[in-house]
Please model this.
Amino acid sequence: MEDIFRLSKLFERAIKEPHLIIPGTIALLNGYLHKIKFFLLCKKVTIGKGFRVYGNFHIMGTGRVIIGDNCFIQSKVFKTVSFTALPAAVIEIGNSVGFNGTTIQCFQNIFIGDNCNIADAYIVDSPAHFLSADRRSFISQEIPTAPVRLEKNIWISTKVVICHGVTIGANSVVGACSLVRSDIPSDKFYAGNPLRFIKPIPSQHIPNAERKNS
Model:
């Protein structure tokens, strides 16, 4: 039943936006080619149904990457999407997640929930280096880590940096060029550097409501 529902949604969108049919079909084929590529490279990668790749997608390192159903990678407009995972690291991505030029560097665990939309952001679960002058003498495994968790239906805008230990609640939005170093609650719009609360996220879009309130 779930597959039938998903196909019906794709069919509805094809009727509304027929210009997306050919690019979408090519992206679907490209997704299968990437699955084959990761298999031949012996990557510990699990990818669900309906995976689509517009452009290129790189996975570096020996960690585990789990990608749910109906996810897509967009790297034609922005930079190439790339995930890096150390041997013990796990990147877990839910269903219907879209990446547009995103870079993920995972040392331990990064979780991204269903229906998230992430632009050319940088997500990392470790500071990557110590602050001391001898920082270059340490290997990656010696650096402390703290998991990153993005709950369902989050929108991360362009040039956002999400640091280690951060949890972002469901339905929240992070504005462009923001530095996220602490948790963001659900249903909130945050932006800036330093990051600050802007306004709550409405449960339903009302046409012209934002214009009237601005």
Summary: Helices lie at 2-16, 21-40, 209-213.
